[in-house]
Amino acid sequence: MLNKNLKFKTPNDGHYFFGYYDKSPFDFNNQKLLAMKVRFMGRMPDKEDVLEIGCFDWQNNNNFIKLAETKTWNWQQGCMLQWVGPDLFPHCANHRQCKELICRDPDGG
Q1: How far apart are CA 55 and CA 36, in angstroms?
Q2: Which tens digit of pLDDT belongs to each residue from 57-69?
Q3: Which of 7, 24, 90, 105 would disulfide-bridge 109, Cβ 3.0–4.6 Å?
Q4: Of 51, 35, 46, which is closest to residue 93 (Cα–Cα)?
Q5: How do beta strands 89-92 and 101-104 pair?
Q6: Whether the Cβ atoms of residue 2 and residue 29 lie closer than 8 Å to each other
Q7: Partners of 64 in the beta sheet?
Q8: How far apart are the C-alpha atoms of 15 and 55, rounded to whole Å?
Q9: Bridge partner list, 74
């Protein structure tokens, strides 16, 4: 169960966004929050703009942990991050030609 008293503020080192209307950014234990980070706002992304993929770990000082990056994203949907099982999330590893879907473990596995 998510702690209702949790206070959370993103760092001032970029612009963060989370989830999509049907994809929860919270892991199954409500200890990690998938997040996407960019360095700009106020314009459409172009094909060279990189989105950082990572998570905030509430058991580890709420720091953003960068896990990967992609160029396949947009403002509305991000890159459709979601948890698959208790520890993994998929993302498109091959950028615009997305021929390979990679699952990552935030704990390094």
Answers
A1: 8
A2: 877 778 888 888 8
A3: 105
A4: 51
A5: antiparallel
A6: no
A7: 56
A8: 14
A9: 78
What does the alpha-carbon distance between residue 55 and residue 88 come to, in Å, rounded to a whole number?
12
Q: What is the token pair recorded at 86?
A: 């208790």
- Point out the residues of the chain with pLDDT beneath 50: 93-101, 109
DSSP class of residue 20?
A: B
How deeply is 25 buried, as exposed, middle or buried, from its count of CB atoms within 10 A (0-12, 13-18, 19+)? buried
Per-residue pLDDT, 52: 92
CB atoms < 10 A from the CB of 16, how many? 16
Closest alpha carbon to 42 in 13, 75, 72: 75
Amino acid at 75: W
Residue 36, SS3 per DSSP: strand
Question: Can you read off the two tokens belonging to residue 67?
Answer: 């896990």
Contacts of 3 (CB under 8 A, 6+ apart): 30
What is the distance of C-alpha 24 from the center of its chain? 11
State the Cα torsion 57-61-63-68 to the nearest 10°.
-40
